[in-house]
Design a protein that fits this description.
Elements lengths: L1 H9 L7 H20 L1 H7 L7 H36 L4 H30 L7 H4 L22
Helix pairs in contact: 1-2, 1-5, 4-5
Length: 155
C-alpha cells in the first residue's frame, strides 16, 4: 500500500487538485499507516518475556521515531537541494516544488525498498518455542509468574 502511495506521489501532476490527487493519496496513505502501525508493536513485542516487555516496547518505539525523523530529514534535504537550483534558474515556484517533491518521494521509495528487504531477510517468524508454550521451559525461559498469594513489599 505504501509503495502505491509513493508511486502515486512520484507522478504528482503540476496542476493536480485536492479531489483528483490529494484525497486518493491521503486515503491510501492512511490505510497503509493503519496496516503498518498497528501490527508492528504486536509483532515486535510478541516474543518478549515479562522482564523484557518494557525494554522491547521502548526500543521499538524509539526506533520508529528515530527512523521517521531520519526519513523526514533526508527527504527534506533532497527536496531543498532540488527546489533551490530550479528557483535560482528562474523556474516557477510550483514547477520547482513538484520536481523537488518527486525526487524526495523517489528517495522515500528507495528507503521503503531497503526496509522491505530488511524485513524479508531478518524476520524470523512468530513460531516461538513449543516447550515454553506448554510450560516445560527451564529457569530463565518464558515468562516468570509469581504465586497468587505472594505479597510484594515496597520499601
Amino acid at each position: 500500500v505504501l509503495a502505491g502511495v509513493i508511486a502515486l506521489a512520484i507522478g504528482i501532476p503540476q496542476n493536480g487538485g485536492y479531489v483528483r490527487f490529494m484525497l486518493p493519496l491521503s486515503a491510501i496513505f492512511g490505510l497503509g499507516l493503519v496496516l503498518c502501525l498497528i501490527p508492528t508493536p504486536i509483532v515486535g513485542t510478541s516474543q518478549a518475556t515479562e522482564q523484557d516487555a518494557g525494554t522491547t516496547s521502548a526500543l521499538l518505539n524509539a526506533s520508529t521515531q528515530i527512523g521517521a525523523g531520519f526519513g523526514i530529514a533526508v527527504s527534506v534535504t533532497v527536496l531543498n537541494s532540488r527546489v533551490s537550483p530550479l528557483l535560482a534558474a528562474g523556474q516557477p515556484y510550483h514547477t520547482a516544488l513538484v520536481h523537488g517533491l518527486s525526487r524526495a518521494f523517489i528517495v522515500l521509495a528507495v528507503f521503503l525498498g531497503l526496509s522491505m528487504l530488511n524485513g524479508l531477510f531478518t524476520f524470523r517468524g512468530l513460531g516461538g518455542n513449543p516447550a515454553q508454550a506448554e510450560g516445560e521451559g527451564g529457569p530463565g525461559q518464558g515468562a516468570v509468574t509469581a504465586p497468587a498469594d505472594s505479597a510484594v513489599e515496597l520499601a
